[in-house]
Design brief:
By secondary structure, the protein is mainly alpha-helical. The chain has 2 domains: 130 residues; 36 residues. The longest helix has 40 residues. Keywords: Membrane, Transmembrane, Transmembrane helix. This is H(+)-exporting diphosphatase.
Length: 169
């Protein structure tokens, strides 16, 4: 069972690394924070809103980066503990305690990873709002909103399906 948890931790670590990489690439490109844009109105909020949008961008990017780095660190540490536990735990009870702790922590990691993904999406939408035409920004917002709704629907459906399988087992 611990091997399966280690595999889950590896997967979460990889996903968080991808989010962190996307944020770093996005932030380092930096063109959307160019002060020459400050003269322009951001269509969504009107005159003088460029600085508000860039502040929101910095906040959402920082949240995406910080939460994904947290997932990377904690998942790596939990992998180390799980591997150490496999070598040192000698009773089924202690192995089960470790399994319960890992199950709880994997749930925490999944939640924080979701926060990083949501922050990354909002960060991207802010940049689109700063650089794109109104219709393009509206289209991107609509598509990302529909995708987000589909994710929520799929997650709920999978959770219900899984619960039904567990009830019959």
């Amino acid at each position: 069972v611990l091997d399966k948890r280690v595999d889950m931790l590896n997967s979460l670590n990889t996903q968080a690394t991808l989010v962190a990489s996307a944020v770093v690439g996005h932030v380092l490109s930096g063109g959307h924070l160019d002060p020459s844009y400050a003269e322009q109105d951001v269509w969504l909020l009107g005159a003088g809103s460029f600085h508000l949008c860039t502040s929101a961008y910095v906040v959402t990017s920082s949240l995406a980066m910080g939460s994904s780095l947290w997932v990377i660190h904690i998942s790596s540490r939990l992998r180390q503990l799980a591997l150490k536990a496999r070598l040192q735990l000698d009773t089924p009870q202690s192995a089960m305690q470790m399994e319960r702790m890992l199950a709880t922590r994997v749930g925490d990691l999944q939640k924080v990873l979701m926060v990083s993904l949501i922050a990354l999406v909002f960060s991207g939408l802010i940049v689109i709002g700063l650089l794109a035409k109104r219709i393009d920004t509206a289209l991107a917002t609509l598509l990302l909103g529909l995708t987000g709704a589909h994710v929520v629907f799929s997650e709920t459906s999978m959770a219900d399906h899984f619960a039904a399988i567990l009830e019959t087992a």
